Description:
The complex is a heterodimer of chains A (426) and B (138).
Chain A (H helix, E strand, L loop, with lengths): L26 E2 L10 H7 L16 H21 L6 E4 L2 H15 L6 E5 L4 H12 L3 E5 L9 H7 L4 E5 L13 H11 L2 E5 L18 E5 L10 E5 L28 H39 L3 E3 L10 E6 L4 H7 L3 E2 L1 E2 L12 H5 L4 H4 L2 E5 L6 H20 L2 H7 L13
Chain B lengths: L4 H8 L14 E8 L4 E9 L6 E9 L2 H14 L4 H5 L3 H8 L6 H21 L6 H6 L1
Helix pairs in contact in B: 1-2, 2-5, 4-5
Amino acid sequence: MSNEMSNNGVVVSESSAPLPAGVTLPIYMDNHATTPIDPRVLDAMLPYFGKVFGNAASRNHVFGWEAEQAVEKAREQIAKLIGATSKEIIFTSGATESNNLAIKGIAEMYRERGNHIITQVTEHKAVLDTCKKLEKQGYRVTYLPVQADGLIDLEDLKRAIDDKTILVSIMYANNEIGVIQPIAEIGKLCHEKGVIFHTDAVQAVGKIPVDVQKDNIDVLSLSGHKIYGPKGVGALYVRRRNPRVQISEQINGGGHERGMRSGTLNVPGIVGLGMACEISGQEMETEAKREKELRDYMKAKFEKALDYVHVNGNMDHHLPGNLNMSFVYVEGESLLMGINDIAVSSGSACTSATLEPSYVLKALGLGDDVAHSSIRFGLGRFNTKADVDYVSDKVIDVVSKLRELSPLYEMVKEGIDLSKIEWAAH
Amino acid sequence: MAYSDKVVDHYNHPRNVGTLDKSAAEVGTGLVGAPECGDVMRLQIRVNPETNVIEDAKFKTFGCGSAIASSSLATEWVKGKTIDEAMAITNTDIVKELALPPVKIHCSVLAEDAIRAAIGDWKKKNNVAETATVAAAH
């Protein structure tokens, strides 16, 4: 789901009804794409844009020391959130870089041991495209399928591991459908087989408990801007013991980050990422419960008011703030157009040249028509019950109107089997 | 992506939404597109058998805002036209009127197809031969 899908840029005609108390338009409910920065995070960062400007690698003066101290504090804050030690945290520009560094760095480092990598089809493009590039360089990649609920089958993984497998990369939680993979079991299996386990945990860290020890994770990617921190900063956890994981650097230079990632550290960004981790850790339990209640409330409202709606992804293993819902017989982009004072994402990709709907939804076995009808709601820290009421009421209203317009809905209501019609594909 | 004012207007106030009795002799129905492509248009016309004038037109569309606007506009345009005049409407007319961007041109093509399919259905029902002008139009 591309970000440009989330807002159609149309000026909405003024609604005649007064806004409910506590609602400010537009409403942001696309927190898997990015999150607004928490004011506490911003406050922590501001000094490092001004007075405290030193280079954390400057060893000979107080400016450098202050910057280094701030960086090391952030390293501790991040490590604490995921059960790691601070020496195991490498700063990067974000999760895309972390995923690239992890996968390419491990592939290169362990090339003599093997050339086989296992991932799965609903990964983020930062993982999939990295693997595709490695395939061109002679690596063998297995893309595990997912089941209809979005989870991989551990038996598939077991069967896929062979004596040339060096790396398994499976995301912690999916950015579109919110499903949480059986990470601890995957990690256990990898350790039994002596395979390194990397997870893209961008959507999970700070939202649900993530512990690299309990979850048997060797390498983990995380990002600042998904947890109310700044954009342009992320981290990679690299296990130092049991087993010690080594990574070939992908950026050469001054040997920063123990040689794994050269480049002057983004001190304000790192401070923000650290603070974002600390706040997320402190508030996780209450916040997850709050978001899950709002999510379930919204889901129940849709299911009560509308027919032909269904959720995508296993709801028992699910991010608290995620709801991916198909409003069948209504095309997603037209739905977004009707709710353009609300920022959400659509599984439709009608604006792209390929007209292909979401590959994640298709991997679940959803037909293209249903994938085109799917909306991702991403609840976050700053969404209120009033937001959820406004959004759900508006979506119900627009879906109802568009179904009055939908020939498919009319045909289904008349008992016509749409699969029996010979559609002229265009 | 920004929609033109005209697309937004048709989306907010679609013209001629509805269903005509498809079994009636004077009604022609065109159903084009496919659900898996994200666009299905159904356009129906009611034709006066004496004058060949399209006296009523209705549509229903599953698709993006541009698809809805293209079919809504198509019903507006065919109403009051003779069959031959309606056959002369092309997708480029629709693109121009609605200021559709290149990625949305297929919506206008689909609307043109829908008009032709509805007219074709009516002709078939009423044993009207496809005229030379029709054949050349495609």
